[in-house]
Structure formats: C-alpha cells, structure tokens
Amino acid sequence: MEHALNFAHNSLGTDLTDLVACPVCDTLHRFSTIPQGGRGRCKRCHHVLATPRPNAMTRIVMLAITATILMMAAISFPFLTIETHGLRQQASVIDTILAYSDGLMVPLSLAMAALIVVLPLTRLTAILYTVAPMALGHHPVRGATRAFRLAEYLKPWAMAEVFIVGVAVALVKVGGLATLTIGPAFWAFAALVLITILQDNFMSSLIIWKTLETRGTT
Amino acid sequence: MENPGNARNYLTAREAGLVSCTTCGKLHPAGVKTCLRCGATLASRDTQSLQKVWAWWIAGVIAFIPANTYPMLKTATLGSQSESTLLGGIVELLHHGSLGIAGIVFFASIVIPASKFLAIAYLALGIGRPHRSSAHLRHQVYEVVEFVGRWSMIDVFVVAILTALVQLGSAASIHPGIAAVSFALSVAFTMLSAQSFDARLIWDADKDQDQ
C-alpha cells in the first residue's frame, strides 16, 4: 500500500484533476490522453470512459429540444389504429397508460405513465437545464449539479424507446387478425429512439461533470 | 496497447490511495465521504453491495412466480372468455402453428428473465472466491445483464398496448391480468439488483488472483 502511494505521488503527481478512475474496474487513466473526437476506452476493461466531441454542448441542447417536441407529438397522436368487421379503435399513449387503470392495477398505470412519459420528460428537462446555459457560453445555473445527477440517475428508468419496440411487437401479434394502420405517434416515437441514440453518443457525462466544475457553480 | 490479461500493469484508484466517485468520476484522497463535485456519497468499494444485490434478487425471483402462474391476458371473443398465462400463450401460439413467434415470445418472456437471475447469482457468488473464468468474461456478463434489464419491460407494455387497442365491443376485447403487475415488479427488482452490483469487486478478485 505504501509502495503504491509512493508510486502515485511520483508518477501521477498530486494534481488529481487530470486523473480519472474507470467506474467499472477502478483503473486510473489520464484524461488528457483521450483524443478529441475519439472514444476513450478503459485500457483494462474496455468500458467507454469519455467521448470528447466538438460542439457537443450545442448538439446535446438541439437534440434534447427535438426529443421534447417529438415526445409531445408521440403522446398526443394515436400510434395504432385497428379495423375489423367495420369496427375501428385507435390507441394513443394515454389510452395505453389507462389500460391498467381499473381496480388493483392502478399502481401499474402510474408506473407506466412514469416510465413512458414522466421520467423521459423529466430527464430531458434536467439535461436542458444543465447543458443549455453552458452551451450559450454562460456559467451553469443554480442547482445544475443536482439536475444533472437526477438525469444520470433516471437514465435506466426512462423507457420511451422500450415502449416503441413494444408497439412493434403488438403490431406483429395482432397484425394477422385485423387491419392495422400506423399512426403519426408511431413515427414520432421511432424518431425519438434515433434522437436518443444520437444524444447518448454525444453526451459524455464525464465531460459534462468536468465542465460543470471548471465553469463553477454556486 | 498493453496486454489486458495482465492485471499488474494497472494501477487502481484504491491502490493509489484515492477514492473515485462512481457518479461523476472525480478522484478524492481516501477518506473523503462526499464527492466535492457532484455531492454523491463516496465509497472505495460498496461493502454492502452484495447484500443489496441479493435482497433485490430474492424479491425479483418471488415476483417472477406469480408472473408465470397468474393470467397475463384476458381475451373475450364473441361471447367466449379465455385467460392465458405467459406459458399458456406460448402453447396457444404453437397450436396455431406460429412456431417463429412462439419461439421469440418464449425466449423474450421466459428464457431472458430466467437467465438474468442466473447471471446475477453467478456474478454475486463469484465475488471473493477464486475463479476459473476471467474477469473479462464476467464483466461481459454484467454488461449484458445491465443492458437487457430495461428491455424486459416490453411484455408489460405489449399487454397495455393490446388492451388499449383491442376494445372492439362484443367482437373482441382484451383485458390485462394481474400477472402483468408481478411481471413489472420482477423486472424492476431485477434492474435494481443489477444496479446495486459494484462491478469493481469483479476486477479486485482478478487482481488478487494475479499477484
């Protein structure tokens, strides 16, 4: 342990700001060795540490705004219409959330609303709140740190893109029994998935954290 | 690039007398309790990680039982009512001759959740024991489990979509069964179990073994 400590002081220096530990395997890396536009992977476990991109902040803001607008469209329009024997039924996200609204299953209805609509929108808002002021060249606003921590925490629980795959599965399941028409919300959701993938590609949380710190918060 | 199999080439934060924040990546001298950058609680290793993993794991397995034994869907077509469980639905698909779809549903709704439980148990049992499989392999298992977790919620969404869509009066209507609730809980518990796992423990064992 003492040897390791000496090693740390001799070869790594006492300046900790350039060092970054892999969150998966704890191996130390120098942040400055990650090339701009490249993908900094952990040399031991190959976990992606950071992906510095030029103009990343501006792009994140654009993508987050696009995603929010698409989200609004995806919620309000029907995503599937079923037709059989002269009967017709449309389903929107709101209808889907209300599917579990009778009796014992009300909590599931609330959970669905959270997973498909509330949490993804909260996450987008938190990202915008953190990144937008910095993208415009200003200092981060009050509470930006907390907002970004919330965004990070919500990441696995925002399931809008899981929902769209569910729609595709339902389409296959019912497709043989009745005529199905894809509504505008389906395409809004499909675009949302693409935007989310692009955004995750541009958004390197490690870099946002570093920027938040260097630009200073109150 | 160095040989990734040789753990001795690498210096971890703990060996350097540092503790890293798993939320934002900032490094602090050992002993600091709260991250100075993001405010998260710091721990060189989450010593209670395995307890949390097992607690959520057990909850997930328990919720998975009613998810399979109770009906997932209640279908009413022209006066006749039928209830189908997860397995029952698959058997029905087989009877209709849709082998492909039956296979996919069986894989997505039964094989994947079950193997997630096995994978988490395998990883958790492996901590603190000598290992034949490399840390790289176990790390890959961990990444797959983390990635797949949220996608298992598809089944719950599909039931809700079908319920919202197939409301055609007396011709056909679908209602959700109580199994959807336990399935959703099982997925959420399994996600929490995987999230509680401190992946650094996998790599510590690798290093101890090498030295």
Order of helices and strands of chain A: HEEEEHEEHHHHEHH
Q: Biggest sheet of chain A, strands in spatial order? A: 6-5-7
Over the alpha carbons, how many angstroms does the gyration radius of chain B reach? Answer: 22 Å
Query: What proportion of the residues of chain B is helical, as a percent range?
Result: 40-55%
The assembly state of the depicted protein chains is: heterodimer
Number of H- or I-type helical stretches of chain B: 7
Number of helices of chain A: 8
> Radius of gyration of chain A, Cα only, in angstroms?
22 Å
- Class from helix and strand fractions of chain A: alpha+beta
What does this structure look like?
The complex is a heterodimer of chains A (218) and B (211). By secondary structure, chain A is α+β, with helices and mostly antiparallel strands. Chain A is 57% helix and 13% strand. Chain A is built from 8 helices and 7 strands, in the order αββββαββααααβαα. In chain A, α4 crosses α6 (160-175). The radius of gyration of chain A is 22 Å and the shape is elongated. Chain B has 2 domains: 1-44; 48-210. In chain B, the strands form 2 sheets. Chain B has a 4-stranded antiparallel β-sheet. Residues 1-7 of chain B have low confidence and may be disordered. At the A-B interface, α1, β1, β5, β6 and α3 of A face β2, α4, α5, β5 and α6 of B.
